[in-house]
Design a protein that fits this description.
The chain is of the alpha+beta class. The protein has a domain at 26-65 and 102-186: Beta Barrel (OB fold (Dihydrolipoamide Acetyltransferase, E2P)). The protein has helices at residues 26-33, 41-46, 68-82, 87-90, 120-132, 135-153, 179-186; strands at 37-38, 51-54, 57-65, 100-108, 111-116, 155-162, 165-176. The strands form two sheets. The protein has a four-stranded mixed sheet with strand order 1-2-6-7. Strands 3-4-5 form a three-stranded antiparallel sheet. Strand 4 (100-108) and strand 5 form a beta hairpin. The relative contact order is 0.18.
Length: 188
């Protein structure tokens, strides 16, 4: 754990030591993740957590077109992160910023929220779908996925904060986590 970061979920990852030893079956995902779910960001904060999963209620995915200035700012942020020296961060300089700010409006146990979606997989999916068809079709596909399929089948948001800003929570990821699998996980 970094000495300057006492959050219990923080650690210094040695990227070269990571080895994939297998895959987790989708049905086992719920059993692994269910202990991490809290009813709200506030509940996680009250428990001293800096990383949690929440089940959003009434999630609404929206895509807001970025201005040229916002795109330049995003590109500069990728380049700055790349200069920090991490193997993974070096690839950030090569990433083209998404022309959209992807957001989720949702409710949790404490009320309504509007968060920018910092999930890189959403942006990668947008570019993949653009390459397959068009920007409009990519946005339509994302909207159907996040506004219809995921809420119907089950989803969770990965929420976290930074050591310097412990009260500022970020939406770090979106996970498909089926309702039926969660009910089954509760039986064990």
């Amino acid at each position: 754990m970094p000495r300057s970061d006492t959050r219990k979920e923080s650690c210094a990852v040695q990227e070269d030591s990571l080895v994939v030893e297998g895959t987790l079956k989708e049905r086992e995902r719920a059993r692994l993740l269910s202990p991490l779910i809290t009813s709200s960001i506030q509940e996680a904060a009250d428990q001293g957590q800096s990383l949690t999963l929440i089940r959003p209620r009434n999630p609404r995915f929206v895509a807001v077109k970025r201005t040229n200035a916002e795109l330049e700012q995003a590109k500069a942020a990728f380049e700055k992160a790349a200069r920090q020296g991490s193997l993974l961060d070096k690839k950030l300089a090569e990433i083209k910023p998404s022309p959209y700010d992807f957001r989720f409006r949702f409710e949790d146990g404490t009320g309504k929220h509007d968060f920018g979606n910092n999930d890189w997989e959403t942006h990668a999916a947008f570019f993949r779908e653009c390459n397959r068809s068009s920007e409009d079709e990519a946005l339509s596909w994302l909207s159907a996925t996040y506004n219809e399929t995921y809420p119907r089948k089950g989803m969770a948001f990965v929420m976290g904060n930074k050591v310097r800003y412990p009260k500022t929570w970020l939406l770090l990821g979106v996970i498909r986590l089926d309702h039926a699998d969660m009910a089954q996980a509760d039986l064990f």
